[in-house]
Amino acid sequence: MLFTGFPGFLGTALLPRTLRRAPDAQAVALVQERWLDQAKQTLARIEGAEPAVAGRTRLVVGDITRPGLGLDPAEADELRRGPLEIFHLAAVYDLSVPPGPAWAVNVDGTRHVVDLARGADQLVRLQYVSTCYVSGDYAGLFFEDDLELGQSFSNHYEHTKHEAERIVAKARDAGMPVTVYRPSIVVGDSRTGETQKYDGPYYALQLIARQPGRTAVMPLPADPSRVQFNLVPSDFVVDAIAALAPHPGARGRTVALANPAPPTVLEMCEAFAAHTGKRLRVVPAPTALSKFAVDHLPGVGRLFKLPSSTLDYLTHPTVYDVTATTALLEEVGVRCPPFAEHVGAMVAFHREHPDVGSAAMV
C-alpha cells in the first residue's frame, strides 16, 4: 500500500491501523525531502508503540507535484506490479494558500496519483481524502453525490479541492475502484482534544479565551443563530476512514464525514465562552466590512489574530446531508460524537497547550 501525506495527522493515525488489517501487509510512505527527518521520528514512535507493525513501512522520498510522484522508475514499477491500495492524503490544507502551491499540490498532485493508480496491475482501491467544502458557496442541502452545482469558491483551497475531486470522480466513473472521503472542519481528538494546529474555529476560541473579565465580546456577521458550523473531531475522521477503507460497501462511494447535527455559529461560540468561564456578548459585524478591517486597517489584524479568509465560514450557506454516510458508518460501528461531547476536551487542550501554531504542513 502507498500513503501520501505522511507524517501528517491522518497518515500518522491511519498507517498503523491499516497495517494491523493483515500481518503480512507492507506500506510505502511517500515523503517530501524536507519532512524526512520528521517522518523518521514519527515512524520510530509508531513502531515503538506497536511492535507488531515494526519493519513493515518504507519511507521513500518523492513529490506528488511531479509526474510519477518524483519516484525512481524502479520504485514506481515495483508499486505498480503488486496489489496496490493507495491512501492519497497529501494536500495543502490552508484557506489562505496562494494559487500556485494550491494547484500544484491539490490538483496536479492528485492527477499524478490517479495516473499511478491507473497503471497498477491490480489496484485494490484509491482512498482519496477530499473535503465537504467542494460545495463552495452552494446555498442549500448538499448531498454526498453532489459535485457540480454551479457553485463558486471562497478561496483557492476550496477551488482546487473541487478540481481534484473532479479528477478522481472521472477515474471512478471510468471503472477505477475509489472511495472519496469528505471531512468537514476537523478539530481535536474528541477524548483528549489533541490537535496539530489551531485554525478555523480555534480563532474564535482564542479570541474569546484571551479577553479579560467575565464577558467576551464576539463580532459575528448575519444571524449566527441560523448558520451551521460543521466541525468534527479528528478521531471520528480517522475511525471512519480506517473502517470504511476495506469495507466493500464503501467502494465507489463518496462519504461525507460531517456532523449530522452541527452547532450553529452562535451555539459554538456560546459553548467556547461557557467552557472558558465567560458570558458571550455578540456584536453584529458584516463579513465584507470585517474582512476589509482585518486586511487593511492598522492594528485590527493584530487584535483579532485571524486570517480574513476564515470569516466566510461564519456565514457559510451549505448544509451537508449525511444520511447515506450515517447508514454506512452504522454498518462498521462508527459514530460522530455530538459537539457538546467533545467541546470540553477541545477547550481544555487549547488552554493547556497555548504554543500550538496555525501553520499547515505543505
From TrEMBL:
InterPro entries with a match to the protein in the record: FAR, FAR_NAD-bd, NAD(P)-bd_dom_sf
Organism listed in the record: Actinomycetospora chlora
Domain of life: Bacteria
CDD domains named in the record: MupV_like_SDR_e
Pfam families: NAD_binding_4
Protein name as it appears in the record: SDR family oxidoreductase
Domain Thioester reductase (TE): 4-241
